[in-house]
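Most newcomers find our protein records easier to grasp once they have seen one. Nothing more is needed to start thinking about how sequence determines fold. Here is such a record, shown just as it appears in the course material:
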Amino acid sequence: MAFEANFSDQIGIFDPSRVDEVVTVIGVGGIGASILPTILTMGFRRFRLYDPDVVEDRNVATNLIYRSKDMYRAKVERAKEYLLDNDALEVEIVQEYYTGQESLSGLVISGVDSMSARKEIWRHVLAGDVFLYLDGRIGGRHASLFAIEPFNSAHIDWYEKHWLFDDEEAADLPCTVRTVVYPAVALGACMADFLGRWSRNERMPAQVDINFAEPGLFLQTVFVGDDD
């Protein structure tokens, strides 16, 4: 008999029976590997994953789903194995950069590490049928999440004006502070919350910044809309 998860504890916060969209995750490194366990546990069951890379030793040290025995395996293969082992229904994988192989639709999550890759994804987000686009960025002890509604002109203008700059303009962190695991985990939790808000038709911030380097914890949100 197939196992059926009991989501009664979270009904009212997130009801997975209301959501059957495929979640497209582009990049299953630090960000993707943090969001996948969380949203799978929430009840998302259908996924499409893009990533050209294989598991390295640094991925094992700073990611949630990769193990030492996964070294040199394709990241998407291990991610698919993890998802199916934990009751995902459908997982499609592409061991390539996303360059428009398929039209984007539904929910799209970007966990890439270059602005040129983000620009390419964004171009196809606008050309597709995407309800919600989540762009995650991490570095050092800082994480930022952008939640963009591609049908919202205010979101489009704000995102393109302020957050789609060239790679040369991106922050250049010393290699010794590239990242640790917990900003990505926090970002995964924020993404999961945003997906819950989206499923409840609640308004959500277009940007959340988390800075663990500040005393306590620095958290900033930005709302963008015609009435702001």
Remarks:
- Helices lie at 30-42, 57-62, 75-85, 115-127, 153-163, 181-199.
- Residues 173-177 have pLDDT under 50 and may be disordered.
- The first strand starts at residue 23 and ends at 26.
- Residues 17-222 form a domain with the Rossmann fold fold (CATH 3.40.50.720).
